[in-house]
Amino acid sequence: MNWKKITGIILLSWCLHALPLHAQVGEQYHNFSIGINGGVDLSSVMFTPTVNQKNLMGINGGVSLRYISEKYFRMICGAMLEINFAQRGWSEYYQDYPSIGYERTMNYIEVPFLAHLAFGKDRGVQFFIHAGPQIAFFIGDSYTQTSNWGNIIEQTSIEVEQHDKPVDNKFDYGIAAGAGFEIRTGIGNFLAEGRYYYGLSDFYNSTKKDYFSRSAHGVITAKITYLFDLTK
């Protein structure tokens, strides 16, 4: 096991063990909610050597679970877990050759484990931040490209090693963080959030003999979540 996997395990263990300890102080809530979420991903890949890109748009959505454990002074503390279908990948762009294009969409089942920290009224508007580890499992991909790549490659030094290369590592992990606001009503809770995911793992092998030493996801997500309180 390499150091990146060890880092991911430590982060996940910290998140899961810290929450029960933290829930022993402050005003107790025991508020459990379940719901759905949906939005869009703007993704790119941190390649080394570099590949020219622009953001690739994909969908992100799934099931959300949240547990609010306490209110500590003015801060509402809890945890949130999601199980999402997420589309990531990259879209190549070359300013000197605008007629060529390549997009690769990579499909994942992702599971973020997030600390939920909020400020505001129990009924009304709250502002919150989310942060914690995230894991994901690669389930498939697809690509589109223009038909004139062959001629361009012969005339330039553009690297296309990434085009036909299959995914080597299907397990992905990293760190997610975001912020947003929540409107709490009698019919449920509505959340709007912006989030960023920084990948710590590489989906291509990255040993000294491999071409890429870095191939990790970077994803900006904008989403809306609806939660229904099961317990208060």
Primary descriptors:
single chain; 232 residues; 8-stranded antiparallel beta barrel; 12% helix
Tell me what the structure shows:
There is one protein chain. The relative contact order is 0.21. By secondary structure, the chain is mainly beta. The longest helix has 20 residues, at 3-22. An 8-stranded antiparallel barrel has the order 1-3-4-5-6-7-8-9. The protein has 2 helices and 9 strands. It is 12% helix and 62% strand. The protein has one domain (3-231): Beta Barrel (Porin), CATH 2.40.160. It has helices at residues 3-22, 149-155; strands at 27-48, 53-54, 56-72, 75-92, 102-120, 125-145, 171-185, 188-199, 214-231. The radius of gyration is 20 Å and the shape is elongated.
Q: Indicate the radius of gyration in whole angstroms.
A: 20 Å
Task: Indicate the low-confidence ranges by residue numbers.
Answer: 6-24
Q: State the separation between the terminal residues, measured CA to CA.
A: 42 Å
- What general outline do the C-alpha atoms trace? elongated
Average pLDDT, all residues: 87
Q: Within the CATH hierarchy, at the fold level, what is the topology? A: Porin
CATH architecture: Beta Barrel
Q: What about the largest sheet?
A: 8 strands, antiparallel, barrel
| Secondary structure: helix percent | 10-25%
Structural class by secondary-structure content? mainly beta
Spatial ordering of strands, largest sheet: 1-3-4-5-6-7-8-9
SS elements, strand count: 9
**Tally of individual domains:** 1
Number of helices: 2
State the order of secondary-structure elements, H for helix, E for strand.
Answer: HEEEEEEHEEE
Give the CATH level 1 class: Mainly Beta
- Strand content bin: over 45%
